[in-house]
User: What shape does this take?
Amino acid sequence: MAFGNNSIRETHYDILSVKEDANYEDIRTSYRYAILNSLPDKLQATSESGDRFLKVQKAWEILSDSRSRALYDNMLIASRHDTSVADDISLEDVMAEDAGEEEVIQLFHQCRCGDYYFVDSSELEKMGYSLLRDGSRLYFVAQNALPASLILPCGSCSLKVRILINPDDFVSIDQHQ
Assistant: This one.
């Protein structure tokens, strides 16, 4: 897979000849067929057949695991949306503030221009993410499997930041009265 200038040459789905919404069994069946047809010792050993074999192995490694597949799918979607990201940050790099409203929490991170990337918990819910509060800590819960990523635009400039969300990450809440 190559991400560059928002063009994807060949995805892991292409390598295994399956649709992006394929289930595990379809992926496994296609992997078995592809791996048998790309064995370097079965074919006349060339660097191209060896490369193909490694691509099939890598595609299986990513798509057979639900967590790595979800992360891969998010990266694939982001690459198709003409997204230029200034930085990749973790949830621990984000600041959180209790907005004082009913259960609304604001997440923000300062941009290079001085303004902020910003999202609140009600917007996150519309995107399929929930925030779980445990005392003064917040954890992400996603409808799809974690890890995941979330792209936020700056309030002033054209930069965007990608928040990489892992199940063990949390953010502490500042409570303003």
User: Anything to note?
Assistant: The radius of gyration is 20 Å. DSSP finds five helices and eleven strands in the chain.
